[in-house]
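We modelled the chain as a single entity of 429 amino acids. Its sequence is:
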Amino acid sequence: MTTQFISVGIDVGSDFSFMSLALPDQTYIGKPFKIIHEKHDSLENAIEIIKKAEEQHNLKARIVLESTSFYHYPLFYYLTDRSFDTVVINPIISKNSTNMNIRKVHNDKFDSKKLAFIGLNRNLKTSIIPEKAIISLRNLIREYHNLVDERSKKVIKLSGILKISMPEYEHIFSKITTKASLALLEKYPCAKDILAAKKSTIIALIKKTSMSSNSYAKTTYDALKSTAQSAKTFGCYLPSNSLQIRTLIKFIKIYDEAICNIFNEITSLIKENSNKKFIKQIHLLDSIKGIGFISAATLMCEIGDFSVFRSPKQLVAYFGIDPSVIQSGNFKGSEVKMSKRGSSLARRILFIAAISSIGLTRNDVPNNEVLRTYYLEKCKSKPKMVALGAVMHKICFIIFSVLRNEKEFVIITPEEQIANYKQKHNKVA
């Protein structure tokens, strides 16, 4: 006989949530109850309502929360600490479930009733909430990427201003954000400032900030002076540019310091938990060509508990790089696109890993010869972006294999793989 239970659906908000209780016969117990997070009495009342329902109907309760960005965590841990069977579901599940009403209804009370109704399904797919150390690492990783993105915006804006005021400036340094470049721009933000300054002063500044030879500093000064003179002929300097440039440089330096601090926190947290399986999995992903330390940590934080994945295709679907299917009757969609469900951050990391894998080193040696060959073959019949998407699929399969076998990545050609497969099966036979 199937075990029955009371389903408790909680629609989680930032300051308050609504709770509804449903019986196995799909009838509701009372009206939706409002839980005010800041009031301890309100939380205790919610606990009492659940316990009273358990006693009255002689059934255990299962609490269903909808995953939010982070608001569901305090409530989840509050309920699990009080020994309640609490699960979290993906919002996609609740949104795609039956609306239970002909009218289009969407409010917190109705959503809590809907969650309670969905929760009655014993085969409901639930999310696994990782331990607090993993959540902490995930928060740091996401903040790291957020800061990198914000810094990139400031750099792009700085680049745009320089293209107007000093068009040739970007050709002087490898990047406009090198220490020497930022130091020069902060002190001499426009062409006339550079031309008015003493040659010896600028050379000394370049030598100090770039930690290079005197000859390099002199060569750089000559290029800088030439750029400043050209800007007088072809360049549009505005009085506001100096303030803009100095302000953007201040922001870039602040972001650099913050990114460095978070990176140090990430490495410290990983060292503190080095004996845990999750951290060992990060090191395994770090062994894959094209995936660096931060990328490996990002992917594992977005994957969470790898044990829930039974096949590479599940991982592909989880990252949202599986094809979306549009079909109804005899109609079939002609354009096949990525579903793009799941973590956008993980997809970005996979995209970067794919580009890195098919790339060449300075000596024109492929980073991953197998994936590069695969990509070039795909390009013969498919557009480049489609071929790159296929490489992302391959990387997903590699990630699954590395984590499943718990072995570091080794590049194996398709021929070697077939030979190994035959040898393995011959031994079994």
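As a brief sanity check on the tokenised model: The chain has three domains: 6-129, 135-264, 274-428. DSSP finds 17 helices and seven strands in the chain.
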